[in-house]
């Protein structure tokens, strides 16, 4: 492949510009695969802004995490929590971005969390921030401060903002957490036990609920309407573009109640689902405990 073709491919696949693509190819000896890796390690496209807020007149404390592609102005991650608990403000903005986001999640479960307020402004604040970011030439902590203050005006706020520059590889790897393939963001979290309302999708060619076994993998849908359930679903792959989508879950426990069944589903070590199923239902099973679904269609 010609060098100009490699440059074009790099710019299209990684979002870098021509000079960055040329640099990556030069340090990689013209090897395209190594150049892609080099871009992931060397070029810092992403800044994670960790924001701590105090509303002094209202005794409200907030944490906001915004990860931005500084080349495009696109918001890659956005999470926030507001609380009456002053302990929220003790979280350090100097911690790595993943630990800070984890702290936001934990704070949303604590007593004092302002769930309704957080939910009511979250989408509007994200839209306001992304629109403002795309209108400025340089994205830095001071600009994020101005954007945040303008959104909450005329309320008085005190803000601490720390920006953490990340390469694409650092962002995808997740700092200090050895995540194996197919594990979720919650591996290793000390979050306690969280149960979500869920349902298991039916399939006329599937498996009768009475024959479902612990260890089977079924196709489920999180139906819990709580704010924290939506947040969790987004992180474990069950919510996209504001809509709940089906995702696999492992059957952890089955309990029969009259003609109905309660099936406990395992999403992560800390997050489970509870589905109540009619005894006559036929369920969508992706993998049986005894034999994988892909082995059934590809026996070789």
Describe the structure.
With 300 residues, the chain is an alpha+beta fold. The protein contains nine helices and 14 strands. The strands form four sheets. The chain has a five-stranded mixed barrel. A hairpin with a 4-residue loop joins strand 1 and strand 2 (60-69). The protein is flat. The protein starts with a helix and ends with a helix. Residues 176-192 and 291-300 have low confidence and may be disordered.
Summarize this, please?
The chain is α+β, with helices and mostly antiparallel strands and 300 residues long. The protein is built from nine helices and 14 strands.
Described by its quaternary structure, the protein is single chain
Shape: flat
> Count the helices. How many?
9
Give me the side-by-side strand order of the main sheet: 5-7-10-11-12
Q: Report the mean per-residue pLDDT as an integer.
A: 82
Helix percent reads: 25-40%
Gyration radius (Cα, Å) is 23 Å
Distance, first to last CA? 36 Å
Largest sheet: 5 strands, mixed, barrel
According to DSSP, the number of beta strands is 14
């Amino acid at each position: 492949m010609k060098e100009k073709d490699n440059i074009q491919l790099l710019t299209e696949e990684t979002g870098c510009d021509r000079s960055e693509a040329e640099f990556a190819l030069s340090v990689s000896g013209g090897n395209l695969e190594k150049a892609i890796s080099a871009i992931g390690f060397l070029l810092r496209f992403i800044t994670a802004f960790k924001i701590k807020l105090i509303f002094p007149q209202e005794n409200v404390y907030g944490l906001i995490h915004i990860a931005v592609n500084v080349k495009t102005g696109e918001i890659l991650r956005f999470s926030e929590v507001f609380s009456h608990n002053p302990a929220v403000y003790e979280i350090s903005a100097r911690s790595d971005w993943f630990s800070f986001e984890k702290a936001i999640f934990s704070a949303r479960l604590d007593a004092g969390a302002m769930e309704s307020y957080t939910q009511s402004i979250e989408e509007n604040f994200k839209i306001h921030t992304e629109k403002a970011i795309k209108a400025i030439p340089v994205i830095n902590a001071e600009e994020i401060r101005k954007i945040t203050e303008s959104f909450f005006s005329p309320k008085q706020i005190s803000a601490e903002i720390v920006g953490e520059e990340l390469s694409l590889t650092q962002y995808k790897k997740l700092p200090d957490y050895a995540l194996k393939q197919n594990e979720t963001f919650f591996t290793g979290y000390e979050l306690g036990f969280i149960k979500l309302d869920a349902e298991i999708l039916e399939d006329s060619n599937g498996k009768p609920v009475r024959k479902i076994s612990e260890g089977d993998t079924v196709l489920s849908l999180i139906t819990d309407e709580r704010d924290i359930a939506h947040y969790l679903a987004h992180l474990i792959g069950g919510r996209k573009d504001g809509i709940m989508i089906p995702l696999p879950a492992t059957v952890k426990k089955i309990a029969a109640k009259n003609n109905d069944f309660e099936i406990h589903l395992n999403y992560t070590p800390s997050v489970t689902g509870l589905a109540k199923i009619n005894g006559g239902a036929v369920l969508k099973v992706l993998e049986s405990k005894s034999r994988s679904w892909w082995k059934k269609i590809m026996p070789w």
